[in-house]
Amino acid sequence: MSTKHEKILQYIESLPIGEKISVRQIAKEMQVSEGTAYRAIKEAENRSLVSSIERVGTIRIEKKKKENIERLTFAEIVNIVDGQVLGGKAGLHKTLNKFVIGAMQLEDMMRYTDPGSLLIVGNRFKAHTNALKAGAAVLITGGFDTTEENKKLADELELPIISSSYDTFTVATMINRAIYDQLIKKDILLIEDIYVPLEETAKLRSGQTVADFHALNAHTNHGAFPVVSKNNKLVGIVTAKDVIGKDEKELIDKVMTKHPISVSMKTSVASAGHRMVWEGIDLLPVVNDDGYLQGVISRQDVLKALQTSQHQPQHGETIDDIVKSEMKVLGTEDVVVEFTVTPQMTNQYGAVSYGAFTTLLTEVGLIALKRRKRGDAVLENISTYYIKPIQMDSVLKVVPHILDMSRKFVKMDFDVFLEDMLVGKAMATFQLLDR
């Protein structure tokens, strides 16, 4: 049985692409309070089902698949460039294939302007008309307007004309940045990418017995199961350890762990893996905001996904990627890493930033652990000390020392040298992931 919140989300998802919605309309249609409707619309926006645009309203947009996440809708473009929609509002839900900067003769401009593209241009009215007729939307820079005829044409063709006060270079940079951020998001594995959905999840219901656990265990070979209520709300989790020595007729409710740790669809796989190792658990239930079970994720699923992702091509470049690109491992026995501080890694004073320095030491630590054939690990904590300022373009040498290693944890310290001068030190603890 779905909650009011879920029913509203299902209703929004069933609306045709391009449909305009409002809090008042949803409240009236679904017979709920305006507060409930507002929260559901905000959740729909987080799930990329709708987009809210100033002076236009909230419209239903097509949810992008992860492989097409770098394609932006015209509604998103309006928000990115702080734009105003002059015409063609009915086409805001459409996605653009590419954008074209109109810094050329009109005839040449049109050769590059295809259906589904976005022409970025100033107050060149003829270019606006030709772009619309070619099936492209128009973004006018400098805060300029267009003709009434072009606005009517945009409405007829359902192709947006957007006006932004920014100049062409700034607008192109902002759109590029948005696509770049989307590419980074695309590379980050989330629980929704690898979880086992509810329909395929082996589960027990409140009121069942230890005998039911053994029967399900014999059928699936799984050692743990989520426990749900009649309407699939998560109430607990039960493992093989919980039922050892228990009477077959004992209720699951009495032996299960209540209020278990759970994750959401948007939790990163790396975060879930760290939590599972830290808490010593093999199965995590996946729930929505209201606590209803949506599926499960196992430790094996997490480790397999993380190992696979390491071999995938990366598109968006994060600070971790930039740091790794400047690292060079020296020596074959004892690990020594040479590292160049680039301008992107510095703070406002031109010295290496704390974030870049911590990332460097973490990566060096992971290399040292792999040399010891200890597999994957995650940083637990780190304390860093700057002995001398480390300026941009400095070429550093980082030397890690493993101080203590147990089955689950490793303590390590680092010496950071600039030529022969000690400029930094650090102490870190890593948590080893089970293979």
From TrEMBL:
Superkingdom, taxonomy of origin: Bacteria
Keywords (A to Z) from UniProt: CBS domain
Domain (CBS): residue spans on this chain: 183-254, 256-314
InterPro entries, A to Z: CBS_dom, CBS_dom_sf, Diverse_CBS-Domain, DRTGG, HotDog_dom_sf, Ser_kin/Pase_Hpr-like_N_sf, Thioestr_dom, WH-like_DNA-bd_sf
This protein's record includes keyword Translocase: no
Coiled-coil boundaries: none
Protein name according to UniProt: CBS domain-containing protein
Source species: Ureibacillus terrenus
Pfam families cross-referenced by the UniProt entry: 4HBT, CBS, DRTGG
Record's keyword annotation contains Transmembrane helix: no
